[in-house]
Structure prediction request, 251 residues.
Amino acid sequence: IFNDISEIRNVERMKSAFVATVSHELRTPLTGIKGFISTLLSDTEGFFDDEARHEFYTIIDQECDRLTRLISDLLNVSAIESGRALEINYTPVDPTSLIEKTVSVQRSYTDKHELRVEIPERLPRIMADEEKLEKILTNLMNNATKYSPHGGEVVVRAVREGDFIKIAVRDQGIGVPEDKQTKIFERFERVDTRDTREAGGAGIGLFLVKHMVEAHGGTIGVESEVGKGSTFTFSIPVEPKRTAAGGGGSA
Ligand code: ADP
Prediction:
């Protein structure tokens, strides 16, 4: 009897790569938090003024947020894996103001990139989960700047296409090799190069993004050329599809 264990081997390999990346991703913010707290604690002479202290507290605060985000992403991955569908809380959303809000938050994180919004026509309100849409956009924009180490433009373009709103995030960064363009949407998949290692990440962002888009009844894909840049495009229905059960509103 022959048993094909290549799939098991594959899962084992992925698990150990995952433990290594996640440990690294958890350790980085912790090292920062620990470092700044130790510095503050050891400053018994009042060497640091209020402004410096405020800056340290701000960094500690941001690093705590980063840890919380990573842990919540991991919990979501595990929920999806155990077969639980993502719950979508539909409310009316104005895509234009959501995009502008998200882009201006991202702008405050970078001075190396030029972030632009291109919305050539008036977009209708859509029924969607605002929090999830914001997460999708934030994630794609965050990747766009993270994987453009030399700066450049990041453009968010939104248009209506029939019953869908199509949103594209275009960067001028390192690009994704063709053979990885489908893989990067799978969990724990990263492109392993010096640039991506330096950028850091656990390889779960796009996996969650894809699930959030699909839970809305939309699709996502990427077009990219190594060294030139990438465009991640997703579409979201203007109205959620009504299910056979007649739900539609909060399926
Ligand atoms: P992470 O960034 O945490 O590794 P993601 O799931 O968000 O995880 O992305 C998976 C991989 O896809 C990244 O590791 C990177 O190799 C590649 N990638 C994602 N976005 C971009 C982009 N805008 N440009 C180039 N590569 C990207």
Notes: DSSP finds six helices and seven strands in the chain.
